[in-house]
Structures are given as structure tokens and as C-alpha cells.
Amino acid sequence: MKKNRIKHIIITLGACSLAVTGCQKLDININPNNLSEQDAAMESLFPSAVMSTVGRIDGDYAIVGGMWAQFWAQASSSSQYRDLDSYNISSNTGYVNNSYSELNTGALLDLTTIITKAREKHDWRFYLMATTLRAYIYQVLVDLYDKVPYSEAMQGSKYLQPKFDDGYAIYKSLLTELDDALAKDFTSVPFSASQIKVDLIFGDKGAADFETEMANWKKLANTLKLKMYLRMVNVKPNEAEAGVSTLLNSDTEFLTVPAGVSTFQDVPNGSNPFYELNVRRLNTQTNLRGSRTLGSFLKANNDPRIIAYFGSADPKLMHQGDFRNNSVEAQQSAVAVQKATDPAWLFALPEVYFLRAEADVRYNNSTNAESLYRQGVVEAFVERGFTEAEANTLLSGPYAFPTAGTPEQQIEAIIVQKWVSLFGPHAIEAFFEKNRTGYPRTSTVYSTDPDYVPGRLVIVPQTVIGQTLPKRFVFPDFERSRNTNTPAEVPLSTPVWWAK
């Protein structure tokens, strides 16, 4: 892809109010291949990169992830997302094209510039922050596309047609880069208190001093490494075990606060990107309806989070992919709850605990798995406004950890609870985890069948990919029209390199 574009960059922090395509930017055209020291200030580029990242991963990708994880379904009264609900997406659709182009020409280009400048200045604070966020974005892109430009990308005119690297090779490089960034001497970093304002990930989460901020970024990098090693369990089991075991045996610290942006406001161009794209920009709140797949699971277990997700303790629910059903019940199906002020997470705390619980089952004989699992469930309730007591009621009943079960039964319990917790702007992660683990299970019957088991994903009636579920994205026109190295089209039903 061409890298010598003209990009609008942030030059004031006060403009960082919104997330859909990056922070709001003053109208100044700057060539990113010829930036001055002032124009390319790391303090200006980093918030732009953060907002581009969450604007797409917790925006467009949230809509897709929640549809394909069967949290919500297309309403029968409209057609906005029928292509998603029938797996009939094309390479020029906004979910594919716009997100890919923004992440590459926005966030990744900014972060590459920061890494170069930080290395030159020995500013290891920005080096760790930019390396970690860059690795996070590439991990998401690899998980969606399997192969993306990486080793030859972001190098200006040197590679106008960058090659596509294998996902596994990219993962290995990212892990090496994270280790390099974590090994730097942060005691020598120049730092002023005002710089905390540009850290939109941890700046408002108790990081009032340099040491706390750096500790949080190290934990974020470690948590990302844990997730990436667990992605490998099916195809690179020895590497996965070695990587996770090293983390567990070295008393590695993982996130203890959520990582992401949580300062959105209920104003135009200031709200959560998922809400901004699906509600405010479309001028309707009713496109996404509660899916019977998730809703039936919550109902079957008397889970009070059904109110937070679908607005009622007993909502009418859409059968996934049943958007041609114009019955009264379908028309009255519950709207999936979205709020303008919802945070956009890279990692929410429940996800962190569930990752750690799975790692403990696989590589530590389940020594701490039940405790970590319970913490994950409790945090998942608390973050939705429910109490620890309400979580404990279900943990003493249908959500009890299968202590006497097999490791696979324990992993299933963990992943199903992770799935439930990921409802909302970070839903793309639920789609990835289904493809990696196979959980929640796929139903052998449709959800209208009396034998349907609540919570199992269904094959939708309008599917265009056969009796299977989607496993990836198609390559975007943004890349194909510019880069002759773009691989031949791959069906959505083809797994990415790490998938089960």
C-alpha cells in the first residue's frame, strides 16, 4: 500500500474528544514522510493513535464481532447489517475497508513514527507505549485476515507494494518486540507530570505518577503476550506452553486495572465509537436486536445481566439471522443496549482473569484456576452494575467452576463466561475466542427447534457460506487496489493460522 499519503494529525490535546476516525484534528496538511520535530511530536501522535485504535476495534469491529458471536442480530424492520448476519460481506464494505485503512494509515503509521523517534531519543516510556499498542493492533489484524503486510510495511517509498507476512511470523516478531520494549531502563526516561495527559489508556485510571503509569504499561504488554501465546495452543503447543510457563514461573504481573478509553461523553463526536457508528450516525437505536443465542443462555441461568444487555428481565429475542421474519414478536424484539459513555477497552478486567484462569488450567495443574475464574465472573457482574453477591449466587449454582471436571471442561466453563462478559464494544474478542476454542459450542439444530440448547451458536438460515460459521475477513479493496501482493481471495469459512 502507498505510505506517502497526506495525513491530518493532532496538534492539540484539547481536540481529542472523539474516537471514530481518530481524535478531531485541526485542518493542517502534513506529509508524514517529511515531518519536523514539532509536527511529529510524540505527545501529539500518541493520542491520535489511541483514538484511531479504539475507534475501529471498538467501533466497526464491535458491530461485526457481536453479530458473529451472536450477541445481537439484525432487526427485521431494517437492512443495515443483513450482509453481516448472513455472512455476505464484500471487500469494499465499510466494516472491512474503512477499518483496515484507518488502522494502517492512522494508528500504525503514527505508532511507527513514535517508535522511531523514541528509539532515537532513548525515550523508553513512549517506546514501550507505542510498541505495545502497535503489537495489539497487528494482533487484531492478523486474527482477522491471517496475513497482512508487516515486515515491509510503514517504510514510505521503500516498499510501495509490501509483501504479506504469515500470521505466525508476525506473532513471533511482535513477541520479540514486546520483550525488547519491556527490557528497557525506564529509570533513565525523561518525564514531566504534564505528559500523563497524552496517555489516554491509563492517564485517568490512577496513574498519577511515572512509576504507576509504567507499571500499568508493563502489565498491559505482559497481558498481551499471555493472550498471544494462548492463541497458539492449537497449532504451536510447545511454543505456547513455553511462553505461558515462562510468564507464570517468573511472577509476571498482569493487568489489575482495565486498559482502554473511558472518558466518552453523550455528545456528537464525543461518544463511544460503537454507539457513535451504530446509533448516532445512523440516527436510530433499533438496528441491533438481542440475539436468542446469548439471551437464552442468560434466561436459562437466571442471570441478571440480561437487563443490562437487553433492557428487560424477560426480553423478546431475535433468532440469529432471522431478519426476514416480520412477525409481531420479531418486531418487538429487545434492542441491544448501548450507551454513549460505555468505555472502549483493549482489555477489561474480566478478560484478564479469564485468560489467567485458562493459562492456569493448561500449565499449572489448575492450582489457581477456580479463584481466577471466580474473580473474572465477579468483575463481569460488577462492571455491569451488579453486586458481588449476585455473582456469587450463580457461582454457587449454574456457574460453579467444575473443579472435579477435566481440563477441557474447565476451559469450556472459562471461555463461556468470557463470551458472556464480552458483550458490548469489545465484542470482536468473543468472535476470536470462539474460533480458537470452539466455545460456546455450535448447535446441531436451529434455535427454533425444541432440542436447542441455550447458549449454543447456530447456523443462520440466510447464510451464504454453508453449514459453518465465519472464521475471518475478506481482504479489503483498500489493499487490493494498491498492492499487487495482496493474496487471492479466501472464503470467510477458512480458519486463520491459529484457529481450532
From TrEMBL:
Keywords: Lipoprotein
Pfam family, one: SusD-like_2
Listed InterPro entries: SusD-like_2, TPR-like_helical_dom_sf
Full protein name: SusD/RagB family nutrient-binding outer membrane lipoprotein
Organism of derivation: Mucilaginibacter limnophilus
Lineage: Bacteria, Pseudomonadati, Bacteroidota, Sphingobacteriia, Sphingobacteriales
